[in-house]
Design goal:
single chain; 267 residues; alpha/beta; TIM Barrel; 2 domains; 10 helices; 15% strand; globular
């Protein structure tokens, strides 16, 4: 009897080990293959526009420069004067709180023909907000800008450059387009003018969107030489609203916007 009991116990133990091995293999399979599925799904995620493919038969090169204004106002008029001197129209993304503090600067930007767009109402982390909260935040900033310039923003740059699918979906549900950048001056780090110039000019390409910040320490010093470089190298600087396509376009995995027929040719 004792031997029979031992045999039954050993048999049961072997079955349990076999089942455990199968379950372990299944777990390993899942761990290996689930991330691949997530990655595949990630390639279809919604992206904002980082840059634009703008083919031209005459070889004309377009780019855009942008300024995020969330704090400080000591250099706004200086930047505006420089842009006007070089006959350049830029895009300014304004936080609603900044609009509240500096309405006269908002009006000056609009009167000078600059493109005045949305950078959220309070510069919150959109990833942490619900879709309804995002819509309410964006609407509040739009209303403030429109009350001063007479024009409601159609573009937005998400605070901190943060976004996910639900953020982009919420923004596009409003008929607005989220805009990122492909050339980052990193001027907010207080790099000197020479470093800012190098960062921008070495990364600039046709269709680029360049990121600067209002109230960055050395941007007014670097901006003239950057604008001269662009003009000397055949670039036409336009507001982002004139750079991007508003219909019949696709956005590739790198966030580059293509006219529909060009994307087909590229693929």
């Amino acid at each position: 009897m004792a031997k029979k009991t031992v045999r039954v116990f050993l048999l049961s133990r072997r079955v349990a080990l076999a089942v455990g091995a199968v379950l372990a293999a299944a777990a390993i399979f899942g761990a290996v293959h689930i991330p691949a599925a997530v990655s595949a799904a990630g390639t279809a995620r919604q992206l904002p526009i980082y840059s634009v493919e703008r083919p031209s038969e005459e070889g004309e090169k377009f780019c855009a420069i942008s300024f995020d204004a969330a704090w400080g106002n000591e250099d706004t008029q200086m930047l505006l004067d420089i842009l006007t001197r070089y006959d350049v129209k830029a895009t300014f993304f304004l936080v609603g709180d900044w609009v509240d503090k500096y309405p006269e600067s908002v009006k000056a930007l609009g009167d000078a023909g600059m493109e005045v767009m949305n950078h959220s109402n309070h510069h919150d982390h959109f990833n942490r907000l619900t879709a309804d909260e995002i819509v309410a935040d964006v609407t509040a900033c739009n209303d403030k800008v429109k009350a001063i310039t007479g024009i409601a923003p159609t573009l937005i740059r998400c605070p901190y450059g943060e976004y996910d699918d639900h953020v982009i979906s919420a923004i596009r549900s409003m008929g607005m387009e989220p805009i990122q950048w492909d050339v980052d001056s990193l001027d907010w780090k207080d790099y000197d003018a020479k470093t800012i110039f190098k960062r921008v000019t070495e990364n600039l390409q046709p269709g680029s969107i360049v990121l600067f910040h209002n109230a960055a320490l050395h941007t007014p010093e670097a901006l003239p030489s950057i604008l001269e470089f662009m003009q000397q190298n055949g670039y036409t600087v336009v507001p982002i609203g004139q750079l991007i396509y508003t219909e019949n376009y696709t956005i590739d995995h790198a966030g580059r916007q293509w006219p529909a027929q060009e994307e087909k040719a590229a693929s």
